[in-house]
Amino acid sequence: MISARYAPHLRATLALGLPLVGSHLSRMAIGVADTVMLGWYGVNELAALVIAMSFFHILYFLGMGFGIGVMGVIAAAIARGDEVEVRRSARMALWLSLISSVISLPLMWHAGPILLAIGQAPVVAELAQEYLRIAGFGLVAMLCQLTLNSYLAAMERPQVVLWITLAGLPLVIFLNWVLIFGNLGMPEMGVRGAAIAAIIVQFLQLAVMLAYAHWLPAARHYHLFQRFWKPDWSEMRKVFALGLPIGLTMVAEGGLFVGSNVMMGWIGTQQLAAHGIALQLASITFMLHLGISNAATVRIGQAKGRGDAQGMRDAAVTVIAVSVVLALACIAAFELFPRQLVSLYLDVSHPETPAIITMASGLLFYAGIFQLTDAMQVIALGFLRGVQDTRVPMVIAAVSYWVVGIPVAYGLAFMLGVGPAGLWLGLVAGLSFAAVLLMRRFWRGFARGDWTAAPATV
């Protein structure tokens, strides 16, 4: 039985969080479609996609800090009735998303030599570069979508983002079927076909989201696109200072998983394919907590804008409870149905499939172990972003993932000979360390009154 004190917070969290969860899952489903369909196409292509998307996502994580960072700023500004701040921060976040995308393109164009230098198989590196030379152009669409997502979520209008991303899923599946396998008279393009399908869908989604943000009656008085070409240097510096630590935090966390991908590639192509499947299943469940974390950022940001310490506490407690329930459900799925989940990704007639299913099913055991700590670290980050505290969380993330997670993973996998399971135990260690320190920081700051007495230090 939910007390009357928490019931309004639960309703508000679910009303805001569930569409955000749906949006993240729909976006993730597009990546799953690529993985599944390239898994049917070939093991080398699947391994190439795993490593290519790791490369892509490091650059995406670095740029996404600007779009994520303004969510709490916009929510607090709306709560204060500051229309100018809403427009300025959202507009400069879009500018920084565009700039970040342009800077990242040369790295993706020349990804092949970089992947070879970090020990990837030549065939995998070549296929990954083919993918990235096309898919890299979609980064600008993804980052701008993320900023608009924050803009709309802060106004408690996340539903349209859900419908836009859902609409992209059947389209990308159809385009993959046509372009990867060469159906309907089109040439068979493999990984290049998957990349072309992805950018077509990404730019269509961005166009619809831009149109909606311009049309939405509740947003018209913010005049987001009026004189969009005109720079606002002081606000850009503010958004940059807030967003860069978030991006680096995301890179630190993403780098933990990318590092595990690279090290798994050292072990073997089959192991990398199995690891990619298990990691993507874990990423799907992570999207549940990421959506709730985004809702937490808005709820905490609103309370901060009102100076409402009790509302902040009750919102945080409610979000944690929701995330724990979701984590327990995910643990049950991974521990009870691992082979069934993994089998969805592979052609059962392929001779390498049984070995990959066995390996990936074993790795899902470890994915189940870190569900709760992974949930708590991203929820804590959502709280801290709501109070615009980003620099210390960046340091915590770097220490947790690169001083704890990566060394533990390498030591167990290679020095002690544990193999793939050792890499995943390193993930568990890094995520658990981060969850404890980030939650501690939020609640200690709350107890001291840091988050409501005065603006937090960016």
Helix and strand arrangement:
Elements: H1 7-41, H2 43-80, H3 83-109, H4 111-117, H5 122-135, H6 139-154, H7 159-179, H8 191-215, H9 233-267, H10 269-306, H11 309-336, H12 338-343, H13 353-369, H14 371-386, H15 391-415, H16 420-448, H17 450-453
Notes on the protein architecture:
α4 runs antiparallel to α5, α5 runs parallel beside α8 and α10 runs parallel beside α13. The protein is mainly α. The C terminus is likely disordered. It is globular. The chain has one domain. The two termini are 39 Å apart. It has 17 helices and no strands.
Key traits:
mainly alpha, disordered C terminus, 458 residues
- Counting DSSP H or I runs of 4 or more residues, the number of helices is 17
Mean pLDDT: 88
Strand segment count: 0
β-strand amount:
under 5%
| Cα radius of gyration in angstroms | 21 Å
The span between the termini is 39 Å
Keywords: Antiport, Cell membrane, Ion transport, Membrane, Transmembrane, Transmembrane helix, Transport
GO molecular function, one term: antiporter activity
Transmembrane segments: 47-80, 92-111, 131-148, 160-182, 194-218, 239-260, 272-294, 315-334, 354-373, 394-415, 421-439
Subcellular location: Cell inner membrane
